[in-house]
Amino acid sequence: MKRKTLAAAFATLLFTTGAAVASEAPKLPAQSWSFSGTFGTFGRPDLQRGFQVYKQICSSCHAAHLLAYRNLTDIGFTPQQVTDFAADFEVEDGPNDEGEMFTRKAVAADRFVKPFPNEAAARAANNGAYPPDLSLMTKARVGGPDYVYALLTGYKEEPPAGFALMEGMHYNEYFPGHQVAMAPPLSEGGVDYADGTTATVEQMAKDVVTFLSWAAEPEMEVRKRLGVKVMIFLVALTALLFALKRKIWSDVH
Amino acid sequence: MDAKTWKNPIIAWVDKRLPIFTMMQHDLVDYPTPRNLNYWWNFGSLAGIVLVIMIATGVVLAMHYTPHTQHAFESVERIMRDVNYGWLLRYLHMNGASMFFIVVYIHMFRGLYYGSYKAPRELLWQIGVIILLAMMATAFMGYVLPWGQMSYWGAKVITNLFSAIPLVGDAIVTWLWGGFAVDNPTLNRFFALHYLLPFLLFALVFLHLVALHTSKSNNPLGIDVKGPQDTIPFTPYYTVKDMFGLGAFLIFYLAFVFFAPNFFGEPDNYIKANPMQTPPHIVPEWYFLPFYAILRAITFDILFIPAKLLGVIAMFAAVLVLLFLPWLDRSAVRSARFRPIYKQVFWLFVADCILLGVVGGHPPEGVWVPLGQAATAFYFAFFLVIMPLLSFIERPRPLPSSISAAVTGKGVGISAHGVAE
Ligand code: HEM
Questions:
Q1: Where are the domains of chain B?
Q2: What 8-state DSSP symbol labels residue B383?
Q3: What is the rounded distance in angstroms from the CA atom of residue A91 to the CA atom of residue A186?
Q4: Which residues are heme b b562-binding (chain B) (predicted)?
């Protein structure tokens, strides 16, 4: 048995063919994201709409366990709103003074409550497939935000002729292998946006991907802002050092 | 080393009993350095600074990191999200590893081009090769720590290589793992070693510098220093040049840290390790790709030796061959500037290493297999055939009589064989 796994691991090393599957996927259409580039930032309204999509649709299957409710103040929600979001969920706590575990309402300091207690329960509810945690999703796929957007908008009602779609699977242009266990999660008007934006599939996809990109890199805006300052400082310092070097070396050449 | 008289009484008191100030004066200030060093000579000091940055960021990361399979991935994400400037520490460390290899590879190609491995600098060069090996081990084990998919599967694939050793291979692998699979004991020991090795590296770098300051720096002309007119004191000349180089390097390094921190990484490593799910395409970090290509180039058995074992041997030989460089290259001329054929083959070799890197990043199928084999053949031929051969057939161009003569444009051309041309 052990020898078999060793051999299998080595075979994957030597004869990896998985990339062949990936390479047949069509090229991802590049979207223009407000948060790409050196000065890119997340739009607060986009993030809040994206959170609404995540909360009302995705979170029934997908966890995002690296996020805490308190993090939502970073995307412009008030502490009261955050407390209210959290209060919709129950978490197990304890033991109390009698040694009993008990459930209580979630508070801002709690991590996002998972929709299923464990992977087996998630699979059981999803036809055997496991909806992965979304907290790092845009960093964990080649193509990042473009991929997730393409996945969400890349469903086809009918697979191309001759494509053998398995029972309970859905045809998606961008998912590796094209058969995905997730039913198209977005449909026209799937959420009632609080700010009145029309909830087209593209709009919701864009918003939820923006939210997930923030979830994956909550430090991004601070990072880029600090980066710009550091760069300006370094360029000035390096220019001065260059001048100093020229001056000191002037008697050598 | 004459003890200098220090004005400050405290410094004088200490120095009389422990001459650290005299040593610093000797090695960082007065150290006579060839006056003609170009910017390729900046990369040694850069590598030293990167090592210090790695140790500084690594020690702080270690304060927040948990080396347990159940917690490692989450603890790294905690560093990213909840530790003050934790994202900065981690991205500095993560990209620092890539920078370390960029800087050290350039440093080594510099040595290769200017013949810095030749007498009297053989040991200096060999310590460098050992440093490279220690760096590779450190980086490999560091990459396992965040316990992502590539961490886990990379560790599994690479440790499995040892199973190719006849008879004792499987026992060695079990011993390395501390069990029958890559698991918590493996992660624990990798963390311990990942913390230890950089300090070993530090000691090796110290030896490297002692050897350097004994035989002194080579220079772009590759000729010996003939007298004081050929040198300038390290401070202020090279101190300021190194500072300027550091500034330029930091711009490059920090641009990645702040604006493209995952440029060198694999998306799969943001998925928590899952022993039940093999990623479709297991690749090591970019700096290992040329060696990975060499490992996979051997797809055929030779006599009774199986391909897998041959691949492992070839991969290790690719680094170890560097130890023998001083004796493989018999040419009396150091610098490629005066070696018309070597100079061209050198660039072919650089291209070959890049090609190996590209091959290593692709699955071994189709055209990549013969390409990888050809590139591997050239890699070894460069050291084992071309270098020894060139020493005899190449006719070097005339060498300048001295560094100062070359710098001031005077001097008679004398070839390496003493023939005026
Ligand atoms: C020779 C210098 C070093 C090299 C080349 C190196 C390399 C690496 C690499 C490639 C990683 C994985 C980065 C990632 O994917 O996140 C890593 C992680 C780590 N290293 Fe180092 N390292 C060095 C020195 C150190 C030192 C001196 C320490 C501590 C004393 C340290 C502590 C850590 C810790 C705790 C992690 C895991 C956290 C993380 O993944 O960011 N490292 N190292």
A1: 23-407
A2: I
A3: 28
A4: 93, 194
> Which value, to the nearest 10 degrees, does the dihedral of the CA atoms of residues B318, B321, B325, B330 take?
-110
Q: Are B280 and A22 in contact (CB under 8 A)?
A: yes
- Say if the Cβ atoms of B250 and A234 lie within 8 Å: yes
- A152-190 per-position pLDDT tens digit: 999 999 999 999 999 999 999 999 999 999 999 999 999
Report the distance separating Cα B122 and Cα B111, nearest Å.
Answer: 11
Three-point CA angle B340, B344, B347, nearest 5°: 145
- So what's the pLDDT on residue B246? 98
Q: Is B222 left (phi over 0), alpha (psi -120 to 50) or beta?
A: left
Indicate which residue of B151, B217, B331, B404 is catalytic: B217
Q: Is the confidence at residue B98, as pLDDT, over 80? A: yes
Query: Token pair of B364, please?
Result: 């071994």
Q: Taking CB atoms and an 8 Å limit, are B240 and A248 in contact across chains?
A: yes
Q: Which residue of B has its CA nearest to A17?
A: B363
Given CB atoms, is B300 within the 8 Å cutoff of chain A? Answer: no
Predicted model pTM: 0.92
CB of B281 within 8 Å of any CB in chain A? yes
Q: Which of B45, B118, B230, B241 is catalytic?
A: B241
Domains of chain A: 39-65+131-243 (1.10.760.10)
- Range with lowest mean pLDDT among A21-35, B184-198, B326-340, B358-372: A21-35
Q: Which two tokens stand for residue B100?
A: 């370390």
Report whether A171 contacts A178 (CB < 8 A).
Answer: yes
Mutate to test the interface with A, among B39, B94, B160 (most CBs of A within 10 A): B160
Instruction: Considering the candidates B266, B285, B329, B394, report the single residue annotated as catalytic.
Output: B285
In the residue annotation, B213 being an active-site residue is answered as yes
Can you tell me the ipTM of this complex? Answer: 0.91
- Using the predicted structure, report yes or no on whether residue B405 has a pLDDT greater than 60: yes
What is the DSSP code (8-state) at residue B141?
H
pLDDT of residue B413: 45
What type of residue sits at position B361? G
C-beta of residue A10 within 8 angstroms of C-beta of residue B160: yes
Q: Is the pLDDT of residue A36 over 60?
A: yes
CB within 8 Å: B257 and A244: no
Candidate of B145, B189, B199, B269 to mutate for ligand 1, largest count of ligand atoms within 8 Å of Cβ:
B145
Query: What CATH homologous superfamily does B23-407 map to?
Result: Cytochrome Bc1 Complex; Chain C (1.20.810.10)
